[in-house]
Amino acid sequence: MVVLTEQIIKGKTRLDKLEEVKNLNLWGQELDDCAVLAKLPNLEVLSLSVNRLSSLKDFKHCSKLQELYLRKNDVRDLNEIQHLVNLKDLKVLWLSDNPCADHPNYKQFVARALPQLQKLDNDDLSSINLDAAAAPQAPARAGPAASTPGPAVGTSGYASPHTGERERGQSRGSASAGVSPGEAGYGPRANGAGGGGGGGGGRSTKNILYAVMALLGELDDEDLVYVRREVEQRIGGR
Questions:
Q1: pLDDT digit string (tens) for 53-79?
Q2: Domain carrying residue 53
Q3: Residue 223 scores a pLDDT above 50
Q4: What segments bear the compositional bias annotation Low complexity (predicted)?
């Protein structure tokens, strides 16, 4: 069992107070217990994709949560969604590549249970046909997930740029669990990038800029929104 602790969060965020954490990225940490999240009352954006979580109960106390990313975990019972019904600010939820997402009425069930949602996985919920599912109650427990190809992940843990969900990088009042910008979906970064740079950094920075521009063509609209947010945050923080 791998348990998320206060020490892990503080170490990754460099924040002394858990109530200051608003954005937390714990991608690919093999976590299966995140009960400590109850101590993060101001958490707004949380990424726990590529972990071993089987329940959503640890999120029910995150009352300010707006975006929750849980791709490639082990949530099998679709009724776990009931733990999120009181998260009135939750607008974005990703559960694709969990066994529960194989339920035939998965999207309709989630849309009915969480009317506050605007996006489920990569879908705008305004396009979901709610008549295709009954009111949210006791669907059959989903069986083991079928083996489906996911985004390419190398031995270093870097996610493919084609991954539909873009994990968040570190920002002001936020945290990334030690993953590189490549894992977070933003591509390479240079130290000191943005200014002229020193120590021959000009040519290196220009090469990185060309590489980033080339990678933009591989991203869909959803991905580009996240890239724009990150750019705006970095410019606004100067």
A1: 999 999 999 999 999 999 999 999 999
A2: 6-132
A3: yes
A4: 139-152
CATH number, domain of 54, equals: 3.80.10.10
Nearest partner of 5 among 23, 42, 31, 44, judged by Cα = 31
Percent of the chain with pLDDT over 70: 60
- 122 lies in the same domain as 195: no
Same domain, yes or no: 125 and 16 = yes
pTM of the model: 0.61
Q: Please report which confidence band the pLDDT of residue 203 belongs to, taking 50, 70 and 90 as the band edges.
A: low
pLDDT at 45 over 60: yes
